[in-house]
């Protein structure tokens, strides 16, 4: 089976040669302008299907507010701002994303969710959030982002640095399927194409292993099957306390 998977992956890689060339010539950057439009539409569908899971997850955010203080949330890879409706009213949100073209959609989400106060939108990658002070935020949020970052361990180090002691990292991420399934087979075979479609997204990541190794004091992590297409069905959800 492993041999068949490698042959099929090779074939898909060959079919993706035009896409590899487009990227090598630097033209793939054009897609970054259009990706926010695709994501905007997909996010509406994702939020509908994952409404209960997100509601459950983000309910715990308020537990990390300091007594008498305002809850400060830093969202990494915020995209179109699809998580804003789930945040507790009155909290302060700092949003970041390396793709500046999300700004237009983000503005709309901010206007629709004026129960929150927005500190700023920072164009930055999760691996290098240098302009955010250490120990400064109560919660960090990533949803469908650790599948796209270039370096998960470095991103988790940055998250731990920015969280105040006792603060928590909230995550909801799709991950690789069980190795005995067809989903695992097709995740690997279709990965070369999916990478371009998903703006650098990888469906074959064992993200939970990085979270387990990241040195958080308490990790609440569950594996769930999301009501989504097989490629992005296996998810992990939970939070990790600094
Ligand atoms: C699938 S979208 C998810 C967006 C949003 N979090 C959501 O749940 O709808 C992936 C996001 O990760 C961002 N991203 C890609 N590479 C990143 C990196 N190295 N650091 C932070 N965010 C990144 C993308 O720009 C995009 O906004």
UniProtKB/TrEMBL annotation:
Domain of life, per lineage: Eukaryota
Q: Which N-terminal residues, if any, form the signal peptide?
A: 1-24
- Residue ranges crossing the lipid bilayer per the database entry: none
- What Gene Ontology terms describe what this protein does at the molecular function level? S-adenosylmethionine-dependent methyltransferase activity
Matches recorded under InterPro entries? Methyltransf_11, SAM-dependent_MTases_sf, Thiol_S-MT
Stretches assigned to the Methyltransferase type domain: 74-171
Q: Which UniProt keywords apply?
A: Signal
PANTHER family assigned to the protein according to its UniProt record, in alphabetical order: METHYLTRANSFERASE LIKE 7A, METHYLTRANSFERASE LIKE 7B
- Report what the protein is called: Methyltransferase type 11 domain-containing protein
* Species assigned in the record: Gasterosteus aculeatus aculeatus
Taxonomic classification:
Eukaryota, Metazoa, Chordata, Craniata, Vertebrata
């Amino acid at each position: 089976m492993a041999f068949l998977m490698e042959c099929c992956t090779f074939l898909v890689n060959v079919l993706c040669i035009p896409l590899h060339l487009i990227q090598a010539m630097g033209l793939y950057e054009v897609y970054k302008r259009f990706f926010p439009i695709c994501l905007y539409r997909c996010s509406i569908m994702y939020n509908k299907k994952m409404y209960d899971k997100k509601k459950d997850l983000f309910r715990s955010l308020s537990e990390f507010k300091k007594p008498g203080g305002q809850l400060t949330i830093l969202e990494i890879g915020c995209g179109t701002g699809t998580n804003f409706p789930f945040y507790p009213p009155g909290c302060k949100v700092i949003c970041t994303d390396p793709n500046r073209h999300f700004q237009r959609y983000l503005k709309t989400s901010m206007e629709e969710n004026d129960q929150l106060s927005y500190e700023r939108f920072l164009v930055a990658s999760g691996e290098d959030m240098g302009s955010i002070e250490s120990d400064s935020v109560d919660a960090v949020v990533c949803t469908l982002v650790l599948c796209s970052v270039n370096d998960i361990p470095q991103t988790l180090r940055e998250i731990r640095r920015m969280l105040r002691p006792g603060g928590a990292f909230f995550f909801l991420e799709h991950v690789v399927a069980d190795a005995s399934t067809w989903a695992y087979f097709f995740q690997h075979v279709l990965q070369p194409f999916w990478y371009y479609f998903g703006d650098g997204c990888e469906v074959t990541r064992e993200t939970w292993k990085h979270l387990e190794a990241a040195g958080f004091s308490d990790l609440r992590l569950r594996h769930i099957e999301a009501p989504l297409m097989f490629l992005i069905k296996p998810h992990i959800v939970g939070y990790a306390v600094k």
